[in-house]
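Subject: two folds for Thursday's group meeting

Dear M.,

Sorry for the delay on this. The cluster queue was jammed most of the week, so I only got both jobs back this morning. I'm pasting them in the order they finished. Each block is the input sequence followed by the predicted structure tokens. Could you check whether the formatting survives your parser before we put anything on slides? The first protein is the one we discussed after the seminar.
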Amino acid sequence: MKVIITSESTCDLSKELIDKYEIKILPLLVSLGDDNFCDGVNINPQNIFDYFKKTGGLPKTAARSIEDYKDLFSKYTDLGYEVVHIGISSELSASYNNSRLAALEVPHVYTVDSSSLSTGVGALAIYAAELAKSGKYTGEQIKNMAEKRVPYIQASFIIGNMKFLHKGGRCSAVAAFGANLLKIKPSIIVENGKLRVGKKYMGPSVNVIGKYVTDILNTYNNPDHTRVFITYSSATPEMIEAAKKALENYGKFKEILITQAGATITGHCGENTLGVLYINDGGATI
């Protein structure tokens, strides 16, 4: 049986990458007040920023239902495919558990908890898609091979503005005030499926990004050099260039892929957030 890879919009892959690797995406739900949207379909990060500026309110995000996942999976299993679903961390969203429960009711579906978010999920989905494209592996084999890489996904970000984290209840008012006053830029690390605060940097975002990238490469120093992602909610060209230059100076990645986060991820991290993400296991079988 042929294998199809599915994921959610929170994998933050560009349309070009989704098309190239034939990954099927289920958009998560985003609400701005009483208006409901589908992430990546009819809402984008700028809509989030505009809403926050106008109202001071944050978006609400929601997982898709078990029935939604059953519909997605059945669409392809009915055509004779096996499905491998790569989901956002079960510690951060109900999405993965809903996909897992749906898979119990649809034959030939295998789910993988990435324990990550954004292009950490995307990197694993692309790997699974490459395995599927090779035609060498069953869905169950792809699931098992992808799961072996989960502990090595390096996903981290520099947070440019603490307002969203504060209003979303993810840091205290005092911490937010102090960080903004001192221009402190904390790094956020995804570890064991959860978020933790990493090293803190001081100064304008464009000045600290190079230091952040170098620190990440020194700490997580066994990358799969096939590809690395620069993923941002919003960023100036100078911020993106600073991250790209640091990766180019490192000199070992074959591909540097630049993507913008979708509305779901943006709704939690806010403006001027930029991350570098890769799988830190030295490479794996295709």
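Second protein, same layout:
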Amino acid sequence: MAVTLKSWVSSLQALLPPGRAFSREPGSVLSKLLGAIAAMYLAADLQFEQLLRQADPRQASSMLPDWERLLGLPDACLPLDNLSTAERQRIAFQRLTEQGGQSRAYFIELADLYGEPGTTITEFSPFTCNSDCVDTLYSQADQFVWRLNIPRAAENVQPFDANSACTSSLLDYDASIAECPIRERKPAHTTVLFAYTNS
């Protein structure tokens, strides 16, 4: 910061009228009084600088809860319980700047903002009489299904085995925080799948 306590004291002393009654000596009572006033101005300057940083959710710390309240966070997708401050800042900024969309690029960018860089999207075309013999037999309904490919392994994978309860899923894993927002924003007539890969 460019402004210091000494420069504040000098500025206040410069406002004093001339004369011996208004001593500018460092140990004088008036100089001590101006030093106390300058300290208050300096503290206000520091608070203002901190407030300017809080105006950007990517840098907010003390005002991050205010940003989250303003942006409707946490919500059903993002409980925010176990997230780091950096993740919360990134999510708040994403929510503030989001404009929406329906394109592949939009959903890839959304996944990137939620911490999943390098994702790709696979769309499925139905098999027709014009398809090659080696093409996959996708149905007409499959044209409304698309898959987001996340280029990392899923975490805490627990496959169904002989000790699993009958009602257990065939495969459990810790879903990426990107899954829920993408499901919320997908086109209403489509189904989105998520694939985690090691490549």
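Two things I noticed about the second structure. Residues 101-196 form one domain. The CA atoms of residues 73 and 95 lie 9 Å apart.

Cheers,
T.
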